[in-house]
Write a structure and sequence with these properties.
Helix content: 55-70%
Number of domains: 2
Structural class: mainly alpha
Distance between the termini: 49 Å
CATH topology of the largest domain: 434 Repressor (Amino-terminal Domain)
Oligomer: single chain
Shape: elongated
Largest sheet: none
């Protein structure tokens, strides 16, 4: 999908990629089919709540949807363990962080416990 499309084009392409009619997509987004038609043809600009609903339904970022810039997919949220590991890593002095990364990369390459 080209990011150089307009907002209306990106929305239409997302809908078509899912194989949805305008009526089906409108129900899922929570707007009328007529409103979605106007949005997809550029005759109406969606409000903030509608943009957020469209982005959430299609699983894309608002920046990508509205401007065609940045990452298309939102970053995956960290689980509790990942967040704790990241926080601990950020508190490490640089030398410890480098050693930790070397160890972690070795471990992910299939090294066995001694």
């Amino acid at each position: 999908m080209e990011t150089s499309q307009t907002l209306s084009g990106r929305i239409r392409t997302l809908r078509e990629q899912r194989g949805l009619t305008q009526a089906a997509a409108a129900v899922e987004i929570g707007i009328s089919r007529a409103h979605l038609t106007k949005i997809e043809t550029g005759r109406d600009a969606p409000g903030r709540a509608t943009l957020m609903a469209i982005a959430a339904y299609f699983g894309v970022t608002l920046d990508w949807l509205t401007e065609g810039v940045g990452e298309k997919l939102p970053a995956k949220a960290l689980n509790t363990n990942e967040a704790a590991l990241l926080a601990a890593f950020r508190r490490m002095p640089d030398s410890e962080a480098e050693a930790f990364l070397r160890y972690a990369l070795i471990r992910t390459d299939g090294a066995k416990d001694a």
